[in-house]
Write a structure and sequence with these properties.
mainly alpha; Na+/H+ antiporter like fold; 17 helices
Length: 310
C-alpha cells in the first residue's frame, strides 16, 4: 500500500496521458464527485493531524512563518507575472493565478518523507497554510487576477470553508474522540487520496483536451515555470534568510507544491468557464513530477548520510 502512495506522480502522469488520448475514461468523474473527492482528501488530512501538530507552530515559529510567507508571497507573484509573460488567454491566466494562491497540499508531506527532509515542519506548514488560505486565497486571487476576470471573493471564501476547513476539522475531531475508528480509516485514506487526486486531475484534463492541445507550449510552459520557480525561489530565499539546508529544502517543497485539487474545485464552483480549472489540473501533474525528481536527487546525495528527519 505504501508503494501505491509513493508512486502517486506515476499514476497522475499515466492517467493524464490516457485522458488526453481518450477523455471518456475519466470525464465521468465530474461535478459533485470532484468536490466530494477533495472533501475526502481533506478529511484524510485532518485525521492525520493531532493537537500537537498545531502546538508545534509555537516551537518553530520562525521556520513555519517563513515558509508560509514564501508560500503566499512567491507563488502568487509568479502566477500573476507568468500569465502575462507567456501571453496566456484570460481563462488560463486566471486559473494559473488561482492555483498559485492556494495553500500547500498534503502531497508535499510525502515528498519530504521520501527526500529525508523535515517531515514535522512540512506537516506543520501544510496545516498552517491551509488555515491561512481561508482568508488569503480569496484575497490574493482577487488582487492578482481580478482585473482579468471577475473574482467572487466571498464565493471563494465559502467554498474554502466547505471543502477544506469543515473536512479537516471533522478529521481532527474524529482522531481526538474516535481513535479506534480513525486508526482503521488511516490504513486506506492515503490510497483514497491518491485515487481521488488522480481522478480529479485526469477528469479536468480530459474535459479540456482540445483546449490544452490548442494552447500548447504557452500553457504548459507557464505551469512548469510556476512550480520550477516556486521550488527554486523557496530554497534560495530560505537560505538567504538563514535556514539550514534541510529546512530550506523542506520549505522549497512546501512552496513549490500547491493544493491543486482545491484550485480545481474553486475554479469549478466560482467561475463560469470550465477553462479556468485546466491550469490547476496541470499544476498537480507538474508539481508532482518535479517534486518527485527533486526528492530522488536529494535522497541520493544527502539521504545516504542519515535517517529521515521526523
Amino acid at each position: 500500500m505504501n508503494r501505491i502512495v509513493t508512486l502517486f506522480p506515476l499514476w497522475v502522469l499515466a492517467a493524464s496521458v490516457i485522458a488526453l488520448f481518450h477523455p471518456p475514461v475519466f470525464t465521468w468523474f465530474s461535478g459533485g464527485l470532484i468536490t466530494l473527492g477533495l472533501g475526502v482528501i481533506m478529511l484524510g488530512m485532518g485525521i492525520t493531524l493531532e493537537w500537537e501538530d498545531f502546538r508545534r507552530v509555537f516551537t518553530m515559529p520562525g521556520r513555519v512563518m517563513l515558509g508560509v510567507a514564501l508560500q503566499f508571497g512567491v507563488m502568487p507573484f509568479l502566477g500573476w507575472s507568468l500569465g502575462f509573460l507567456f501571453g496566456l488567454p484570460r481563462e488560463f491566466a486566471v486559473g494559473l493565478g488561482l492555483v498559485s494562491c492556494c495553500p500547500g497540499g498534503t502531497a508535499s508531506n510525502v515528498i519530504c518523507y521520501l527526500a529525508r527532509l523535515d517531515v514535522a515542519l512540512s506537516v506543520t506548514m501544510t496545516s498552517v497554510s491551509t488555515l491561512f488560505a481561508v482568508v488569503l486565497t480569496p484575497f490574493l486571487t482577487s488582487l492578482t487576477v481580478g482585473s482579468r476576470l471577475h473574482v467572487d471573493t466571498l464565493g471563494l471564501f465559502v467554498s474554502i470553508v466547505q471543502v477544506i476547513i469543515l473536512p479537516v476539522a471533522a478529521g481532527v475531531i474524529m482522531r481526538r474522540y474516535l481513535g479506534g475508528l480513525t486508526r482503521r480509516i488511516l490504513t486506506v485514506m492515503p490510497v483514497l487520496a491518491v485515487l481521488f487526486i488522480t481522478l480529479i486531475v485526469a477528469s479536468v484534463i480530459g474535459a479540456g483536451r482540445d483546449e490544452i492541445l490548442m494552447a500548447g507550449f504557452p500553457l504548459l510552459g507557464a505551469v512548469f515555470s510556476l512550480h520550477t520557480g516556486g521550488f527554486l525561489l523557496g530554497y534560495v530565499f530560505a537560505r538567504i534568510l538563514g535556514s539550514d539546508a534541510v529546512t530550506a529544502k523542506t520549505i522549497s517543497i512546501e512552496v513549490g507544491m500547491q493544493n491543486s485539487g482545491l484550485g480545481v474545485v474553486l475554479a469549478r464552483q466560482n467561475f463560469a468557464s470550465p477553462l479556468v480549472a485546466i491550469a490547476p489540473a496541470l499544476s498537480s501533474l507538474f508539481h508532482s513530477v518535479i517534486a518527485s525528481v527533486l526528492a530522488g536527487v536529494w535522497r541520493a546525495f544527502d539521504g545516504k548520510n542519515g535517517d529521515p528527519v521526523n
